[in-house]
Design goal:
Chain lengths: ~260, ~550
Amino acid sequence: MKNLIRKVPHLLPVALLALTLIGSQPALAQEAGDHQYTSEAIETGSRLYAQQCALCHGPQGDVVDGVNLRIGQFPTVQSDDDLRQVVTQGAAEGRMPAFSLRAEELDGVIAFIRAGFDPDGVAVKIGDPVRGKALFDGEGQCADCHRVRGVGPRTAPDLSNIGSIRTPAALQRNMLDPAAALFPINRPVRIVTRNEETIVGRRLNEDTYTVQIVDSNERLRSLKKSDLVTYEISNEPSKQPTTLSSDEVADVIGYLLTLRGL
Amino acid sequence: MEKIISRYTTKNMARSGLIAVLSFLSFSAIGQVSYERILDAESEPENWLTYNGGYMSQRYSLLEQVTPDNVANLKLQWTLQNQVFGAWQSNPIIVDGIMYVTERPNSVIALDAITGRVFWKYRHVPAENSLVCCGANNRGVAVLGDKVFMGTLDARLVALDRVNGSPLWDVEVGDVNQAYSVTMAPLVVKDKVIVGVGGGEFGIRGYVVAYDAETGEQAWKTYTIPGPGEPNHDSWEGDDWQHGGAPVWITGSFDAELNLSYWGVGNPGPDWNAGQRPGDNLYSDSVIALDADSGELKWYFQFTPNDAYDYDSVQVPVLADIVWRGTPSKVMMWANRNGYFYVLDRVTGKFLQGKPYVTVNWSSGLDENGRPIPTPQPEGMPTYPGNQGGTNWYPPSYSPRTGLFYFSAWQDYATIYRAEESEYTPGRAFLGGGFSVLAPAPGAPTIGIGRTNPINNWTNEVGYASLKAMDPQTGEAVWSYDQFDVSDSGMLTTASDLLFTGGREGYFHAIDARTGELLWNINLGGQIVMAPVTYMVDGVQYVSVISGHALSTFALPN
């Protein structure tokens, strides 16, 4: 079985590319004043988070089920004061322990969480959402693959809540350099089964013996790898870097940021 | 009706008499889990008497009712549902048809190993200020005589009556206010119960400590960081030794002939800023050999001097008597978190062989004494293996029949470390920086400690599991078996050349121990983060494994 599966290329070159990209960004400085915490607080919080929170919550804040700190998804917390209470008193029947932090540390970690884990910040130009929607549906060709609020194909990820799960910088990167920005799970796959059926689609989940995909006909398929003759994960993203102008990209980002789920 | 009742009563009374006799018998049977029985555990493969199945820690069972030919017929017999969420890393102990397993944070459950029905449950509520880095884990109990022993999150050791679960004694192992804890299953040797302490992320000073099993009185205590005047104290500078970590959080092994107990020692603190604690930082990231009666240090071997990567050497010391390149030898095999697989002489601690089993770039190799040649990566660049290591605490297995050593490795997994000056404050995290797991795209999901998400959206590009069957003679894998996600599962081998293991995906696998061929698997749905065990009651062989929040037990039909 293993011989039939084409190995995904070694990750180091991809990773180095990603690092290069990260390294090039601090040049774009975050404008002050667009959040209520200081840059120093965010920086303090970033350090504290790595030391005390990341072991359980993970570097992206998404390891604990039902909690995604980076995008502000919590089981109970709404206000910053709620967040303070959980950190200082613990929660979830002790699975989240209580932390005794100094005041500036507590402010810092909340600032870091509220800043979407972006200690350096990136000044991304955000344009007009109305123009952005027109570009999304028209010239930008986004709607050819992406679905928003029940309209459009399901082959690419649904973007109805993309504004609450991605930072402006990540949205920009995805449009300008999709090869580097695309998460591996979203890469196109091409499968040929023993029954000589060719399936093209996108992975939703995978394990050692099976893969779950949504195919080009928008069908949910779960396939046993032992039934596959070919299983290829493309190195190429499903889309090319956008040809929109930088103002137009800013407009599309403006629109995407309005998509915050139901 | 009346008649029936009276008949039933009579019968019942007769049965009560029988029970009285039986209880007397079973009482004396219970008194018989002697040191000699544990020492000779191999001769009663129907039981699983210690954490690793025997003092050699091979996790190899002589039971052979389940074979490569019939393993696909295994059927679920019963399930025990855990009532507490969180990774369930407990190793069950089985004595004469009774299973003892722990549940988070510090409960002990005694149950019927045939039906899974519970006899008793003991709850210890750890102090509210208990502090552990990586979850309220407990990895199981030890037994001796009529007692069960459990270490606790608030660094206590509790002895319970094996028949009714009543506490008999309860002693302080370490100061909970300084973040000492016990998560490992104790090791019983002769008349003593031995444990080590966790807290390597909180600036403890680690130790191994032995108690009289009868009274709980401390018999000896050996620090894993030598104090002033002791040998190797100069491997630390200033007062770094006072809060240098070196915890012991995995059960050790024992060689009765040498009277040596062996313990894997964890990381130095602060974890990621090696520059803040110059020197080799002995005995962090080492194996230490302690006299079982006195605790005296007889030898040590350090795998990772002045560690900057959290490469705890808390792996199980796996002992074997093999012909090593023509000479009958007492060896110790060790797949270390630092990415190297070692063979040591366990009489002297002499290094025999060491080779990388995964990509390693923090070191370019080992010298003739087994000391690594360091090649620290530039700031911001990935280090292989990553923070969770090439492997970790998951118990390996050695099969004397195949001569192979089996363990879970993490392949192609790397971490970017950030070192930072860190001030020691008692009872607070003492980490010296932070780390991030190397991701294939900025912001892409990665892997952490354990798995709680049923969807794998990080993919094998962040790292994946590779079960390796190592030949100790060559230090090379004879075969390997890969999984898409990483695995924290331990191993079990049997005399019928079966290998049982799991993984984070929740599959329970039976694999041919000789060839690596998959013979049977079943999706149990939750991460498997301990090794399976096997036992026999009334002529039936059982295989038990914990997946997610359920302990499932399998056997052949009829």
